Amino acid sequence: MTLELPRLIPLLGYGIALLGAGSLFPHLPLLPRLVMVAGLAAGLFAERRTAPLVPHLALTISSILLFLWYAVQFSRANPALPVVSILSVLLGTRLAAEKTARTWLQTSAIALFCLSSSSLFDLGPRFLLLLSLMLPMIALLLVLLTFQAANQPLTSQGLRQATLAGLLIPLAALLLTPLFFPILPRTQFPLWNFIQQAGGSQPTGLADSVTPGTSAQVSERGQLVFRAEMPRIAANQLYWRGLSFSRLDGLRWLQDSPAAAAQPRSSAATPIRQIITMEPGSSRRLVGLDLPISFQHPNGSTIPWAFWNRPLPSSRRLRYQVLSSFTPPPAVAEHALTSLSQLPNETPQRVRQLAQRLRRSGATDQERLAALEAWFRSNGFSYSRTNLPTGDDALERFLFETRSGHCEFFASAFALLARGSGLPTRLVGGYYGGEYNELGGYYRVGDERAHVWVEVWLNGSGWLRIDPSSFSINADAALGEPRRRSLMLRLRLVLDSLDHTWNSAIITYDFERQLQAAGKAHNRLQSLRLKDLGPFGAALALLAAIALGYRTTLQLRRSGLLNRNTRLLRRFRRAVERSHGIPRTAQLGLIDLARQVDHPQAHAFVTLYARSLYGNQPLTRDEFRQLDRLVKNGFGPR
Asked: Which of 192, 239, 368, 391 is most buried, by the most CB atoms less than 10 A from its CB?
């Protein structure tokens, strides 16, 4: 059955173009999207009328103008978007052009570049899936274009063979990938670090300061910030510490310096270990389960002050280990505590008066703290992310009028009242909660979980974590964990687990992890002993020896070293070469060789050997011995 190439080639070509366009489409501005859609529609319409819808000159002029338009937008702050826009415009104009073999080759190449450039925005499993689909299609398209150029008909059997060839090429590459991926050299920083160094970062949900009243509502983007591989723990312990705020500029809380925010080491016997993978972003502050006591790089080195010294906002995921403890840290210097119990001059009078009443409500720090908590619980505060008070008096209105706000209002108001009561207090910023993925064994934390709480110093107890947001009347609904377990949620958790596995094994595999893996392999090989392998190792070694022996025997048979007739013939040619100088590689038959030697023993050898060779009769033992004696006697001059 002969197949029609004019129908198969467009089918493959448009399929390749759709894969390339689809990979970039979500990341493009409106104009390149319209160009690609219009180009595809014009190309499909032209297939029906067998003539291009748009003249070639018009396409060329449009391509040049759009190329120049996006080229002038290229800058250090905006490097990626103009490039991918130009690629999408070129793809759209190629789809609308007259279709020839050259056009299809150009379309396939541009589509492949579009798919490659989509890794600037997302290098996830979806990229590998699209690439695995595109490569066999391009290989098959090249085969079909070759048949078309040679003007040869293509049968159904030929199509099956061509499809098989198209599948085998990328399959062979994929099979070799696990072998070369761990050992090929790689740079310390990904290439995209330098391409997207400005403007390509994602928000982390944390701010460098806490200022209640700057906005009437808090947006929830739901972007992933980090994943923490660890066992599941109680929800009320899921406080992820990132920043601390103890300095006040008016009523604005300022971030501590990295050295001042460094946490002292705890003497906890069983710290909680977390492997955290932070998503791309501009934040240089690492997070860990409260209270983090040690941050370590994958290469084993300690990260000072939980501060990642990355020079550029980048697309690099950061992977590190944290050890945390629920044991409070030891005491701090007395002068530091004094500075943490002072109110700024800008504190409203009503706030000062309330703080003085709370201070007189108890004789000890514990009693004053209990009175402060009771005041918050009994005054009907509610947690809200909308309709928030704004302006310079926002905090005062929250306390005495609206009594509705988010965590920054609760924490700031509580901290001011605690300081006015004589309690050293500071703010802590980070994240609260997380969605646990049982399949992957990790917590997934998004930027909507950004949170602020307070720490109060109590003599004899040290720092005590208090979350004033939990005193709101709707705290369970506002801060609680979702309990639904629908089919869609489970499917999303499975996909998220696959994405995390991809990022952990592929994306974050850098030069340092390469060296670490090589060091582990070297140490294991040095300490490897045969008895350590056990029965499985012995069986594996036996199978390897059998395979090696079979391979060696096969090679010897192919070379003729295991065939006594072949060895005998080689000896005969070497003897002729020594006696008469005729090279053993000379292209001469046995009879012609015997005539040139012109020796009775040579004639006798050839006659007996040829009778067995051409008569398809194996040499007997006596014949083999006779031939062996003839070779040993040589074929010297008579």
From this structure: 368
Q: Is 243 helix (H, G, I), strand (E, B) or coil?
A: strand
Over the range 169-196, which residues count as b (16 or more CB within 10 Å of their CB) and which as e?
ebeeeeeeeeeeeeeeeeeebbebbeeb
Residue-wise pLDDT for 49-68, tens only, equals 767 777 888 888 888 888 88
- Based on the domain organization, do 340 and 382 belong to the same domain? yes
d(CA 412, CA 343) in angstroms, rounded, equals 12
Q: Given 433, 449, 479, which residue is the final one in a domain? A: 479
Bridge partners of 314, per DSSP, are: 281
Last residue of a domain, one of 180, 196, 228: 180
For 90, half-sphere exposure in the C-beta direction (CA atoms, 13 angstrom radius) is 21
C-alpha angle 171/177/180, rounded to 5°?
A: 145
- Domain hosting 384: range is 209-479
Q: Do residues 272 and 362 share a domain?
A: yes
Phi, psi of 431 (to 5 degrees): -140, 150
Question: Which CA distances in Å does 565 have to 155, 557, 601, 614, 619?
Answer: 47, 12, 18, 13, 8
Express each pLDDT in 264-302 by its tens digit.
444 555 789 999 988 877 566 789 998 888 888 776 677
- Same domain? For 101 and 250 the reply is no
Whole-angstrom distance, CA of residue 582 vs CA of residue 597? 9
Work out whether strand 382-383 and strand 154-155 pair parallel, antiparallel, or are unpaired: unpaired
